[in-house]
Amino acid sequence: MCCIACLCRDVIEGAKPNVIRILHSGDLHLEAPLAEWGASAAARREDFWAAFETLLALAARHRAHLLLLAGNLFHSPRPTAAAVERVRTGLDALREQGTHAVLLPGSHDSLLVGDSVYRGEAFPGSTVLRSAPQPVPLQVGEHRVWLYGRSRFGLGSGAAEGGLNRSDAEGFHIGLVHEPEGSAPGSSVLPASEIRRWGLDYVAGGYARRMQELQDDGEILGCLAGSPEGRDFRESGVRCAVLATVGGPATGIETLTTCRRQLTERHLDLNGCDSQADALEKIFALADGELLLRLTLTGQVETPLDCGALTMAAAGKFHYLQLQDQTEFVGGRLAHRLAAGNDFQGLLVRRAQELWKRVEVKQRPVVDAALRELLLRTGLRNGGES
């Protein structure tokens, strides 16, 4: 009976796939100035630190063997001592829970700078890939791992621009790559055919605004993780990290939310608004103190909108509000009344209306916007607002 039980146990244990769990992210840009966020910049910087803490928590919760950060952990190669200590403390605590961190220098925290944070021993408990052409061995629990790094911003970057060809050593072979995206939106300079030739078990790509699976013939070879927190509205929507399970019949991919707040883009139709106050009322209807909103205003309005004044009036109603004015004014009732006048504003409107009819359709919004700006600067009359 004992032999039969042992045989059954061995069969069952032998059937378990030898897998490794990887949490993959990058492009955190800790300590980025974020000046474009104005009064919200300090709060946004803390959002980025919150994303870092979320990555640590997710790695621990999912018992990841590796946390891969594929470039631009910091916004600068010279982060403050306080930032380095905060990151080191977090990564050390994570290691005590069984997750080993691997850091690849990127375009912002480049190793090419002589006093880069990665040239010293700032993170002694983690592995920093300096883009050496040879794989770096690592023992993670019972797993033997070989790490490959490629970055145009690391030591040995000339050699690293080549392939990351798999060695013959036994174990998991994991690559980290930080490369610029291709010229087309969403494209990558990591063609699947090249990744296939490398023969690695998983490729963790950085330098991408959005998560993108790297596939070849339906097989997942790796991922571009995208940023865990949006720096600007090119990184709107839910931000995620990638949880990859590598070593089974096929690589499994799961996305895990990392952002504290979402960058949101919406359109608001102001058709028929007769005044700035009418527009403000519609904007207030969307108010949310946690919302980071880029709002595009559209529709036919009866008065040019002062977006600066609207934004100031909405202060405190949103965590952050950015207005884009794509409304139409040139064909409205007030524009026609102004055009009938013999003063400077009447001349402006008539000339704009004539030009609006002559130009191509795609150029008409430019004419309309120029007219609205000029009228706002000169002050309005006849039912308009100054």
Description:
The structure is a single chain. The protein contains 10 helices and 15 strands. With 386 residues, the protein is of the alpha/beta class. It folds into 2 domains: 18-257, Metallo-dependent phosphatases (Purple Acid Phosphatase, chain A, domain 2, 4-Layer Sandwich); 263-378, no CATH class. Strands 4-3-2-1-11-12 form a 6-stranded mixed sheet, covered by helices on one side. Strands 5-6-7-8-10-9 form a 6-stranded mixed sheet, with helices on one face. A 3-stranded parallel sheet has the order 13-14-15, covered by helices on one side. Helix 5 links the parallel strand 7 (172-178) and strand 8. Helix 8 (333-339) packs across helix 9.
Terminal Cα span: 94 Å
Number of helices: 10
Structural class: alpha/beta
Radius of gyration: 27 Å
- Largest sheet properties: 6 strands, mixed
Topology of this protein?
Blueprint: H1 2-15, E1 20-25, H2 41-61, E2 66-70, H3 81-96, E3 100-104, E4 127-128, E5 136-140, E6 143-151, H4 157-160, E7 172-178, H5 192-198, E8 202-206, E9 212-216, E10 219-224, E11 240-246, E12 252-257, E13 263-269, H6 276-284, E14 288-298, H7 307-313, E15 318-325, H8 333-339, H9 344-358, H10 364-378
Parallel strand pairs: 1-2, 2-3, 3-4, 6-7, 7-8, 8-10, 13-14, 14-15
Antiparallel strand pairs: 1-11, 5-6, 9-10, 11-12
Helix pairs in contact: 2-3, 8-9, 9-10
